[in-house]
Write a structure and sequence with these properties.
The protein is of the alpha+beta class. It has 4 domains: about 20-230; about 270-305, no CATH class; about 310-460, 2-Layer Sandwich (Beta-Lactamase), CATH 3.30.450.40; about 460-625, 2-Layer Sandwich (Alpha-Beta Plaits), CATH 3.30.70.270. It contains 15 helices and 15 strands. It has helices spanning about 1-10, 15-80, 85-110, 140-170, 175-265, 280-305, 310-325, 360-365, 370-375, 430-455, 470-485, 500-510, 510-525, 555-565, 595-610; strands spanning about 115-120, 125-130, 330-340, 345-350, 380, 400-405, 410-420, 470, 490-500, 535-540, 540-550, 570, 575, 580-590, 615-620. The strands form 4 sheets. Strands 8-10-11-9-14-15 form a 6-stranded mixed sheet, with helices on both faces. Strand 1 and strand 2 (about 125-130) form a beta hairpin. Helix 3 runs antiparallel to helix 4, helix 4 (about 140-170) runs antiparallel to helix 5 and helix 12 runs antiparallel to helix 13 (about 510-525).
């Protein structure tokens, strides 16, 4: 009978979902009960404590100070009656007036709330300072202040009368001696009334203090015993429920674990999911297994997709998208490393400004400075502060850099960035683990595509000058334009053409002409930044792309190129010659939102430079564009 009762109250025979729901409701109920008891008790105790600390105690201390001041005034009155020296009399009257002023300030604090400053009138030192709350919760304080205030005013008036009469008696005016005695008696009577009122109020305050203290003790005791009883009941029920539910699910949980292990030992179809039939432990295990197979399936599918991508840029873009969507990582940079060129370039996100990377720019032109590239293993700033000297510490970021080992050497670096808290928070370790799986799966694909790109790149470069050719510009225009428009930057275009170049070939031969073209390309490259592009557009024509420049800055660069070439002596077998160059300038997207039209505008400006005398730089303007002519 007892076991049957236990089975009923622990819901063992109910479905698992209902069992857990009822179990949760029961736990929540006891938590709410304990929470309500705790909050109620704390609020009550806090209210009583605040009443004592913020109201009763400051008021009581103020009343005691008023009482002491009144008693001091009584003593002063006796001393005034016996003083026979003018100076001593003035000092005593001044001290008494100061005490009256203190009492008035104390009454103001009791009536309105404020600061109480108790000053020793003998030496002027501050004895004590504290604040009194407005008597909202203790209206008796305001009532006391209102009752005492007229008495204090009478005390002040009577003190002045006593002082005047005392001075007359010191002037040997014997007629005022009887009046002085009468005034002193009245003065002392008022003081006695004020002291009596203060003592009466102080007694009521003490009773209020004791009452609130008793209430706090009662609330504390009641809360302790109530909370203890609730805890005992809740603990017993929790143990009974836990033991019963554990036994109820132990067998089915073991069964499903055995099934998962058997699946893991054989060939598993990653698309075949376990059907989740409940929300209990069995359901959790099923979902975990399904999640695992989904993750593996996603990574396998990811590798198949990037194998079919056309370019490395597509692969890096998909890898970056996987970091965002699959791994939940938002801040990262993918670098491509070319050890043979001693360079590394950020390839995702597309970064045109070197200042936007988080490492010193030196690593871009000397990849040996990158610690990950040099060591070939992961570098994490969480393990050691400032572990990498190339990372900019002023950014106040944590970083974890993972090498992409391709062909036995570092072919790339993935730099993950985190706020000052580091990557060990908010489940970032799990996110990074998934990111590493995507990186590992992409390495073989990246290696194959890099090899293909190396072969393909030879077709995109001019064999004579080593510059990119027009085919390169045609293939990468879309990527370049997208990056410029997204970042809201300008690109300066300078179309360059050697003046009278045909004469060189006719006079000195084509070998000298080739040499002149090589030296001209070197001069142009030296006049621009490493991030800018110099393209052999055809024959003796060169196109310079100035990335991320300010408005009208391209004209300065064009003049720099023109003057550099004009001031250079070009070597020939017969000695040296000098050549000049004409340049046309336009800006994208400032002049037009079409990149190829910007190139045409630069070509039009170049034509104008040739037409108006050569050896000059001409900026494109709208009046140059005559569609019938061009």
């Amino acid at each position: 009978m007892f076991k049957k009762f236990i089975r009923i109250i622990t819901f063992v025979d109910l479905p698992i979902r209902k069992k857990f729901m009822l179990f949760s409701i029961g736990v929540l109920f006891w938590f709410i009960v304990m929470f309500v008891i705790s909050i109620s008790a704390n609020l009550d105790i806090d209210k009583k404590t605040n009443m004592i600390v913020k109201n009763i105690v400051p008021v009581d201390r103020t009343v005691q100070k008023i009482t002491r001041k009144l008693q001091s005034l009584s003593i002063d009155a006796v001393e005034i009656a016996n003083i026979n020296d003018y100076n001593e009399l003035d000092q005593k009257i001044t001290a008494s007036n100061a005490r009256i002023l203190d009492i008035k300030s104390f009454l103001t604090a009791l009536h309105l709330g404020g600061q109480v400053n108790d000053i020793n009138r003998e030496n002027g030192e501050l004895i004590e300072s504290f604040s009194v709350s407005a008597p909202r919760d203790l209206p008796a304080a305001a009532e006391y202040a209102e009752r005492l205030e007229p008495l204090v005013n009478n005390i002040s008036l009577n003190l002045q009368t006593v002082a005047d009469l005392k001075k007359d008696t010191l002037n040997k005016n014997a007629q005022n001696l009887a009046q002085l005695t009468e005034s002193l008696a009245g003065y002392m009577k008022i003081l006695a009334s004020a002291i009596s009122l203060s003592n009466t109020f102080s007694t009521s305050i003490s009773k209020s203090y004791l009452h609130n203290s008793d209430q706090i003790r009662y609330a504390t005791t009641f809360t302790f015993y109530t909370f203890t009883g609730v805890m005992v009941i809740a603990t017993v029920l929790l143990l009974v429920f836990t033991i019963s539910i554990t036994h109820a699910i132990e067998i089915p949980v073991k069964s499903i674990i055995g099934q998962i292990r058997s699946l893991g030992a054989g060939k598993v179809d990653l698309t075949n999911h376990i059907v989740v039939r409940s929300k209990d432990e069995i359901g959790v295990l099923s979902r975990d297994f399904n999640t695992l197979t989904e993750e593996i399936h996603e990574i396998v599918t990811f590798k198949k997709v990037i194998e079919e991508d056309y370019s490395l840029d597509d692969v890096y873009a998909r890898l970056g998208k996987a970091f965002h969507e699959k791994c939940g990582l938002d801040q990262f940079i993918i670098y491509e490393v070319w050890g043979s060129k001693n360079k590394m370039n950020p390839v995702y996100p597309i970064i045109l400004n070197e200042k936007e990377i988080y490492c010193n720019e030196e690593i871009l032109t000397n990849c040996e400075q990158c610690k990950v590239n040099k060591t070939g293993h992961t570098i994490a700033s969480d393990t050691y502060t400032e572990i990498c000297k190339q990372f900019k510490p002023e950014l106040q970021k944590k970083h974890l850099c993972i090498p992409m080992i391709i062909g036995g050497s570092t072919g790339g670096v993935v730099q993950f960035l985190f706020d000052e808290g580091g990557y060990s928070e908010n489940g970032n370790n799990k996110k990074l683990f998934r990111a590493e799986q995507y990186i590992k799966e992409s390495l073989s694909v990246i290696e194959a595509k890099r090899l293909t790109n190396t072969l393909r790149e030879s077709a995109l470069k001019d064999s004579l000058t080593g510059l990119y050719n027009r085919r390169f510009l045609q293939e990468y225009t879309e990527t370049l334009v997208a990056g410029v428009l997204r970042r809201g930057k300008n690109v300066g275009l300078i179309m360059c053409d050697l003046d009278f170049f045909k004469q060189v070939n006719d006079t000195h031969g084509h070998n000298v002409g080739d040499t002149i073209l090589k030296e001209t390309s070197d001069i142009i490259k030296k006049c621009v930044r490493s991030a800018d592009m110099v393209i052999r557009f055809g024959g003796e024509e060169f196109l310079v792309l100035l990335l991320e420049i300010k408005k009208d800055e391209a004209m300065k660069i064009a003049e720099k190129i023109r003057k550099a070439l004009a001031g250079t002596k070009l070597k020939t077998p017969d000695g040296t010659i000098t050549k000049t160059i004409s340049l046309g300038i336009s800006e994208f997207p400032h002049d037009t939102d079409s990149f190829w039209q910007s190139i045409k505008f630069a070509d039009v400006a170049l034509y104008k430079a040739k037409e108006t005398g050569r050896n000059k730089s001409v900026r494109f303007t709208e009046e140059m564009w005559a569609k019938d002519q061009f």
